[in-house]
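Example 3.2
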Amino acid sequence: MSSLEINDFSAPDEVRRPDATVAIEVVKVADGEVGRYTFQPGWRWSEHIKPVVGGDSCQTDHIGYVVSGRMGVRTDDGTTGEASPGSVYRIPPGHDGWVIGDEPVVVVEFQGAAVYARP
């Protein structure tokens, strides 16, 4: 027998603020976690999250959807890309990311929220 589950970002189960330029809101559903991340203009993983988690690049495997704003990504092998509103993405471990422009980036992630930006 299945059970219906509904959760809402208006009352997230967890909020992480590893830096003043980012908020990570997490809701739990089924056996997983969905995250809504808000990155402010000027945010860059290597400057704002790296000091919290260490390492040379982000090691989280992300699958998500861009709600607003534009984000740049560069993988450790030099591949670059840009995600904009409506983009669905998978970013493998080993990358840097940053906000492009003056608008905050808001994404919803279906994979990665459980571990992202944890020391």
